Amino acid sequence: MERLQKVIANLGYCSRRKAEELIKDGKVLVNGNIVTELGTKVKNSDTIEVEGNILDNNKNYEYYILNKPRGVVTTTNDEHGRKTVIDLIDTSTRIYPIGRLDYDTTGLLLLTNDGELANKLMHPSFKIDKTYIAKIEGIISPISIKKLRSGVVIDGYKTRSARVKVKSIDKKTNKSIVEITISEGKNHQVKKMFEAVGHQVLKLKREKYAIFDIKDLKVGEYRKLTFKEVSILYSLVK
Asked: How far apart are alpha carbons 39 and 24 in whole angstroms?
């Protein structure tokens, strides 16, 4: 058995000090009963509710956000012996990535062992926004931007409308930096979309996934998602 405030903190809902405040304020229920005494101990089988949110103390799910480096494969193991995204995270739990980033693509990647949530987030029907920064060969034209926004045909399929913003253009090096937000996740989609309008992607980084970003993470760094962040992910797939 563990102290209630420690369990709440370990589940990622808030800090232990904040958990103590919530307990004192009568905002925590155990098995349907309000608990206000600090130091109350709970079992794994107990149902804990905080501010109307039920914390699952039985399922040992883990959720991570990673700033993926270049040259790391997005898979659980690699037949060629290359480093995988799993190798970067210190856990004994068998986690796996939600979606994919190419070997040479960097940026935001979510990982978990919560299969139900992962499958929903990857399903195209939920239209989860993903924002990338692409360095491309050539100077992108207004016509190409319009095509990307309205959808282009790749592999016999017309992509959904995308949000596209030109970040910079360098006429000396004949390069463009473009931000693009898509709500799909097909194989090599962003690269193929730019190829469809005549531009090769030289570098690609995923900067955002839904509301999440990696501004607080250096390349190769990761952290666990908080309870509230996991709740946000679940709210996206209701």
From this structure: 11
Reported as a single tens digit per residue, the pLDDT across 12-28 is 677 789 999 999 999 99
Q: What is the pLDDT of residues 130-178, one digit of tens each?
A: 999 999 999 999 999 999 999 999 999 999 999 999 999 999 999 999 9
DSSP state, 74? S
Strand partners for 64: 111, 224
46 included as an active-site residue: no
What letter represents residue 163's amino acid?
Answer: R
CATH 3.40.50.1580 fits 2-55, yes or no: no
**What SS3 state is found at 26?**
coil
Distance, in Å, from the CA atom of 168 to the CA atom of 137, rounded to the nearest integer, reads 12
Catalytic residue (one of 46, 78, 102, 213): 102
User: Using CB atoms within 10 A of its CB, is residue 212 exposed (0-12), middle (13-18) or buried (19+)?
Assistant: middle
CATH 2.60.40.1220 assigned to 129-209? no
| Measured distance CA(117)–CA(62) in Å, rounded | 11
Is 224 within 8 Å of 212 (Cβ atoms)?
no
